[in-house]
Design goal:
By secondary structure, the chain is of the alpha/beta class. Helices cover 36% and strands 25% of the residues. The chain contains nine helices and 14 strands. The strands form four sheets. It has a five-stranded mixed sheet, with helices on both faces. A hairpin with a 2-residue loop joins strand 9 (145-151) and strand 10. Helix 1 packs across helix 2 and helix 5 runs antiparallel to helix 7 (214-238). The longest helix is centred in the C-terminal third of the chain and has 25 residues, at 214-238. It is globular and about 55 Å long.
């Protein structure tokens, strides 16, 4: 048993948790729990506290707790600002740092929060292929299109050249809407509804592709063209050394990544696909603490 941090990757559907040492070693096994994101605030707080305490049992000493949360969220203050997104609405305005400290006994100063894609980026820069990169860009495609930008191993400061406001690309105008409308689960489902007459998520569409369905393959080809077109302005402006792609849909990357890979090759950017985004985010949370 070792000293380390208890880390949670909090999603709207599922919460992944593990104990992680300061060196980034994930103490197995990674645990999975339902998010219970629609329940009352006190029930969610008790649920999160229970997960933290369970993860901490595999450590000789808990150094702190790190939680990766989707935004909007006041990460420095520990206050949840999610509202109208059908997840954790009842935590709106709640000081989670104080609430979890009271529920777990962990000192408030030892509870840190980070954007979920930011945690993924910190993990890639600390323990993954982006380690040592002068500049790195990160995209996570799931229920939406999350993004982050890194400079010299840390998240890029606000106003850094080529970095959009708060590192977000999801709200950039794209085609007839914004990036998030296309590079997301709902974007893919809208595409398959239009092309195939039924809404399919990545796993279902990949199954058709494996069976040689040309229409399904064409859907992923179109998605890949969208990905390239949406990413290019930021790649041109920021000129990262590497681009790391994560999220559930990357399990089907072989069907849609080629256009983006060709662009990255032309720009001299190394492209990496992360097999386990949550695991990397859990590692990245340890870097939110002093010395990380």
């Amino acid at each position: 048993m070792k000293a380390g941090y208890v880390c949670l990757d909090v999603g709207g559907t599922e919460i992944k948790s593990a104990a992680v040492t300061p060196a980034g070693e994930v103490v197995e096994p990674v645990a999975y729990a339902p998010a219970r994101a629609s329940e009352a605030a006190q029930a969610v707080i008790a649920h999160l506290a229970g997960i933290l305490q369970t993860a901490g049992k595999s450590l000789t000493r808990v150094l702190g707790a790190g939680l990766a949360f989707p935004g909007p969220f006041d990460y420095a203050g520990g206050i949840c600002l999610l509202k109208g997104l059908d997840k954790f609405d009842r935590l709106y305005g709640v000081n989670l740092r104080q609430a979890l400290a009271e529920a777990t006994g962990i000192t408030p100063a030892d509870i840190r929060f980070c954007n979920d894609v930011g945690a993924f980026a910190l993990g890639e820069m600390g323990f993954g292929p982006a380690a040592g990169a002068e500049r790195a860009m990160f995209l996570c495609i799931g229920t939406g299109c999350g993004s982050a930008f890194g400079v010299h191993g840390q998240l890029a400061p606000e106003g850094y050249p080529g970095v959009p406001f708060q590192g977000y690309v999801y709200d950039r105008p794209f085609l007839e809407g914004r990036v998030d409308d296309y590079l997301s689960k709902r974007g893919l489902m809208a595409l398959t509804q239009a092309r195939l007459g039924r809404s399919l998520a990545g796993k279902e569409l990949a199954a058709l592709c494996q069976a040689g369905d040309k229409a399904a393959l064409d859907c992923f080809a179109q998605f890949g063209q969208w990905l390239r077109a949406a990413a290019e302005p930021n790649l041109q402006a920021f000129r990262p050394d590497c681009l790391c792609i994560g999220g559930q849909i990357t399990k089907s990357a072989g069907y849609f990544l080629e256009p983006l890979a060709a662009l990255c090759q032309a720009l001299g950017i190394s492209l990496y696909v992360t097999a386990d985004t949550s695991r990397r985010a859990l590692q990245g949370l340890t870097r939110c603490f002093p010395g990380g």
